[in-house]
Amino acid sequence: MSAPDDCLIDRIGWVPVHAGDVTLEVPLRRALLEGHTLDGLAVESATLVPAILRQALVPVVLAALDGVTAEEWADMLALGRFTDQQAEAINCYLTEHADAFRLFDAARPFGQAAGLEHANGAVKPVTALTCYTASGANTPLWDIERALFPQPLTPGAAVRWILHTQCWDTGGIKGAAVGDGQAKAGKVYGSQKGALSGMGVTVPVGRTLFDTIVLNLPSGPRAAGDKPVWERGPVGPQWVVRRPSGVLDWLTWQGRRIRLVYQETDGARLVTGVVLAAGDQWEGGLPEFEPHTCWVNRAVTTVPKSSKTKPKTEISRFPYRIRPGRSAWRGLDALMAVERTYANSERQTRLAYETSLLLTQTARAVLVGDLPADYPLRVVTCSMGYDPMGSIVQDVTSDSMPLPVTALCTDYRMRQSVVRIHAQAEALAVAVDRLADHILLALGGRPEQVKAGEDPKGQRQSSRLLHLLEPYVTRFLAGCSTAPDDEVLDRAHLAFETLVERAAMQVAEDVLHRLPGEAFNGRMVEEKRGGKDVKVVYRQVEAERFFRAAVRRQLTYLYPPVESGAAVEKEFVA
Fold this sequence. Notes:
By secondary structure, this protein is α+β, with helices and mostly antiparallel strands. The chain has two domains: 5-282, no CATH class; 419-574, Topoisomerase I, Chain A, domain 4, CATH 1.10.132. Helix content is 34%, strand content 18%. It is built from 16 helices and 18 strands. The protein has helices spanning 28-33, 48-64, 70-79, 84-96, 144-148, 155-168, 209-215, 247-251, 332-335, 346-350, 357-367, 413-442, 461-480, 486-512, 517-521, 540-554; strands at residues 15-19, 22-26, 40-41, 124-125, 172-175, 187-191, 201-205, 241-242, 256-265, 268-278, 281-282, 295-302, 312-319, 351-354, 378-386, 393-402, 523-529, 532-538. The strands form seven sheets. A three-stranded antiparallel sheet has the order 2-1-3. A three-stranded antiparallel sheet has the order 4-10-9, with helices on one face. Helix 12 packs parallel to helix 14 (486-512) and helix 14 packs antiparallel against helix 16. The protein is globular, with a radius of gyration of 27 Å. The chain starts with 14 loop residues before the first strand and ends in a 20-residue tail after the last helix.
């Protein structure tokens, strides 16, 4: 027997949105058909943004319209809303598949496996759906009350969190469901983490909810046999290992088997528990058509077993991951890498970036004139860090920033401007760390040796400087979104460099403030350079001079380079 109509997710409010000054939860049908009147998603956690888009909004549109061509994609953005024919197709699609969108249906509950249960009848608290909520022996003192007495979820909140679980749940050992033929001793070992767990998710965001949905629609023909989960029939306890058949299959991937447990009080239903078990696993790495990740191309060397065979080096493609605590703008080099290129330097030959399919699609639209150069694009980035076993969430990183669409195109000066400010900020961060290391050596200490690609164990001066620079970079990017002319752009660069120099000097002054006399006198250290033993003098005056020279080299609007006879600052070698 089907659940009543008030449990249809296109009738109950569950998509949180901004509508002017009001925040409300709207049904799926309204979010899609009236998205042009809504400002955007208003989620309590940034990790819900890709979950709602991937598991519901985007696949419904793609399935209802039977795929979207590049021309249709551009026309939708230009119009700013669905055409009458497209709206009718979406409306009819939701009506046709209404039985698959009932949250508490006895046969086909949305996003769940009907009748799912564990052999011992165990039911977890609703906090199991929020994988970063402390539970069990890991619960800190201030979280005990929430862990022992979890608040029930409304049906709308439950919809959001089951979608979130499919995307971000922890891996490792999962309890086996009754009827799972692959279980061992009531457990499933080696379950994969959620589909989004292994990458830094990059979500383009537009002016309205409609624009955001369109910007997240991968254009192209629909693959044969590619269907969202609700078109595949009821989901049972048995899971499989397979490759996704296409974009729709991958976006709605069921990496977990879930059943909501609810109680009805005074006519209202509240979700009080959840049955959670292992779900489908995908073969190999992320599929090539994954739309929401940037990529890293690394050289991987395979050492053969036989000494007669030479090591083989190949370029492999990995999803780009966001380091914990890093602001979104520090990943601009990956976000803007529309063309996969390799520079001549050894580092760039071994590490090259490639932006996401969705941002590549946006860049092409700008180049052909389908998207205006002053379109106010924003990017939301988020990721989760797990322990080595993948069973505990250790950190959640999220950020948002404006990204000028012309910065994605090599034919626009704006791209060079954004690349420039990013490089300046990173170079000055290196300069302040070298200043601090130089002073530490002058005082007889030893700076921490940080390997390439690793974060330092302690707080570095560069972290403080980058934190100070963040509002300046964001302001510059926001101003560039209006596609200013060259004269305005030059003035913006000059203003940016003025603020950057002030911040860099502030950090440097704090490093140099009230140093003991040993720093002034300095210290001579024997080091190997170029295969030779040399004696290097480290003292305050050289440290400050090298730092100021590094600042002048980077801030070329404030300090235009001298064409001839320019002096180059080098470390003093005794």
